[in-house]
Amino acid sequence: MARYAMVIDLDKCVGCQACSVACSEEWEVPIGQARTHIRSTGIVGKFPKLVSTFHVGQCNHCDHPPCVMPCPTGATYQAENGIVKVDQSLCIGCGYCMEACPYDARYINARTNKVDKCDFCSARLERGEQPACVNTCTAHAKYFGSLEDPQSFVFSAVYEKHARRLENSNAAVGPNVYYLGKPGHLDLVSATFGPRAPRLLRPAEVWRRMLKPLVLAAVGVTFLGQAVAFFYQLRTGEKDFEE
Amino acid sequence: MGEKLTRRDFVKLSSVAGVALGAGATSAQAIQNPPGWRGSERVERIATNCEMCFWRCGAVAEVSDGKLVRVAGNPDHPLTKGRLCARGNAGPELLYDPDRLKYPQVRIGQRGEGKFQRVSWDQALDLFAQRLKDIKQKYGPESVGFFPHGVASGFFSTLMKAYGTPNSAEPAFAQCRGPREVGYALTFGQGLNSPEPVDLEEAKLIILIGSHIGENVFTSQVTAFAEGLSRGAKLIVVDPRFSTAAAKADYWLPIRPGTDTALLLAWINVLISECIYDREYIEKYAHGFTDLAAHVREFTPEWAEPITEISAQVIRQTAQAMGDAKPAVALHPGRHVTWYGNDTQRARAMAILTALTGSWGRKGGIFLPTPIKTGKFALPPFPKSSRKRVDGAGTRYPLASEEQGLTNGLIDATLSGKPYPIKAWVVYGQNVLQSIPQREKTLKAIEQLEFLAVVDIMPMNQVNYADLVLPEATYLERYDMPAVVASAKQPFIAIRQPAVEPMYESKPGWWIAKQMAKRLGLEAYFPWDTPEQHLATLIKPLGIDAATLRVQGAIAFPGRPYIEDRLPEDGPLFPTESGKIELYSPTLKELGFDPMPRFTPVAEVPDGYFRLIYGRSPVHSFARTQNNARLYSLMSENEVWLNTDAARGFGLREAQRVVLENSDGVKSLPVLIRLTEGIRPDCAFMVHGFGHESPKLRRAYHRGASDTELMTQVQVDPIMGGTGMRVNFVRVLKEGA
Predict the structure, then answer these.
(1) A4-193: which CATH number, 3.40.50.720, 3.30.70.20, 3.10.290.10, 1.10.1040.20?
(2) Scanning every residue of chain B, which has its alpha carbon at the shortest distance from the alpha carbon of A25?
(3) Entry pTM
(4) Which ipTM value was assigned to this complex?
(5) Cβ partners under 8 Å of residue B241, min gap 6
């Protein structure tokens, strides 16, 4: 069984967004949302001694994915090949997994109202194709392969070139997206876009996010019903009632 | 590797047969989710040429049930090999943009008001033909100005030539690559063309002067650039702004704008005085070296330092890097290079530097085009006009391209009526209001016209001024002239073919041109009935099969990119008058210009102002894509980059919305500012193409500000007639001021 990983060479990446758009088009991600984000670190330093680089962020398919446990329905799971997936038929869009993800790689799809994220283009892999982002990368900066395949670029990047994982004291959960680049650039990316601590929702959060909207909706509907009844009466007149 | 081959075969198989799998199926997995399917949808894959910009990358359109579901890269395309940029991937959002022009329209309101009446194609074409006939009768055919852009305009160019007007002009020359084409042709005997043949992937040293590869994305160029860097090429970036490329550079030279020629002369000085140029190459191929050596003696790095604000030491170090890397020095000639009106001479200096490093025709430098001969149509001769072109190309500007013309010259002539009146314009796919500076002039010229016809896809602002609007089909819905590209390492022919039926009542350019020809009695210039017949004639001498071309999208031929590969049939290596590289240009001397480049200072930035500079974003093409839903979501407006300290000096804050006002008092739309260390204090930078004025572009309307609008000043290049546009100064007004 393969153990999939992605390597992004920041020395090559120009932040052109081709990967992000290819991904969005491939997976019909609603306009304005994305599974893959390209962000600049911004220009750091004092003119003219400056540093700047990009970060390509997506689901990291972590070795120990903190998003799996909080999922109340079992929709989020880790497949044998390491890919973390969301079973859309089970997802209820509660967002627990989003809070747990230290990379903020998950979002609620505005069309389906379910959680969506990168799945390393599993459907394409099944067809023997590369992930859409890797396939389109104008700079050939994205590599995909199995860490169990010594012939693959990702194997040599990870085990020989020591490509770096984006981990810190907030979260060290074994992300499988690795980065190559100048140490200074990698430090900057790590400082700017390093993981946050996973958050587990407390009951209060459950109330705020799930029950409260429900209650509000119920109240709203009741109110609306009242209003309709009121105006209906106004229109038909009070005569009938008096009689 | 094996996996890759299989995948390519799959693409071919599925598109050839239109039936799922042949013998190619390898694993049980592949059968569960076979190629040619997206989930439970059967998809057909049609190879075509992208037109989200003009680079002609290979795309594959995936169509299911007559609907376009996806545009991806075409792995069989020799230039881009399956890669496609953000804009290319966002093709479906152009096709399905609800704001598209949907049917022919005739203006009923005032010019610019945007009130139109829908008419049928027959009515529209009859009207178009009648107006052209009337104008021909009253003023002669030369009084129609033609403004083309894009691959499809080839058909329309034939139409307008046959009609009898020599007055055709596109911004690709006078507002873009003109100085470079002329400067390099003066030196090497030939220009560079597009895509420019820069051997970035083999280079040991890459030099970018103002070019911002990465923000300016042409897929194959980015691929080659990144490949070159990853193979260890050193990078010198000369740019007043800390661009994406500058962030990857070994040397970033934040030069004082307008002084590039001084830097180039100093580099030439060091290469010669330190004797680190390619002596053998120069002795063998160049003319005028002694003159050049004498000419640049005074232009030392110490001379250049106060002019350019680049230290003499850095100039020497970088020159040494060129000496070390030669001949694998890829000095990028730039693309949009109409900056200060002295641009041909700057391009000459770049060409001379390229010669001194021995890089023209060498691996890692500038490689040579390999022409491919396509079939010709037996056309009647085009009518010869007794009246010369009005724009000055070939006359006042003898070195300007008569093929591409001078848009600014054509507009000036429309305004002045001299040397003879221009009474009508036909605008085909060109955005005359967003790509040509001095917009007020263009609008005034339009006011004077008796007739303005615009063929376009989107309701750009010029459409609102047109008397007749014809909606063109997008590249995903039409055939075009195939791309015949010589300036690639493997020359190739690539086709554009429809993936889906044209939406609404839009029609392909070739159809419109042919219909017009019929109405104007010019059918003899279109001796083919269908695009298939047109293609068959074109590819006849190439010995290739049309079906293969349509399946693969492109066919490549062996190239001869380096000097040692050349065959006698390729003609002279340096088709100049002397047959050598002309370091000293007798042609320029004869015309009364400096035969060797000289630095001429540009106007200083006035107090309280910034020099307006502009460039590209990787997610937008010119002013064409701002209304594309996907691309809009990535970048909905532009920002003005200002140096943090300089901006604070004016009391400005980060992310404040401001208005820019140029030295002629023209104000921009409100625009956000971005305070950054990544720009010199004397410049303001913005991405070109925003600030659309047409309310019919419902997303892009009034988002961001237009750099073009602020270009009320131009400096015309006396050699090639184009407009230097970096000569405008802006000050920042807090919004509402």
Answers:
(1) 3.30.70.20
(2) B70
(3) 0.92
(4) 0.93
(5) B212, B254, B613, B615, B641, B678, B679, B680, B683, B685
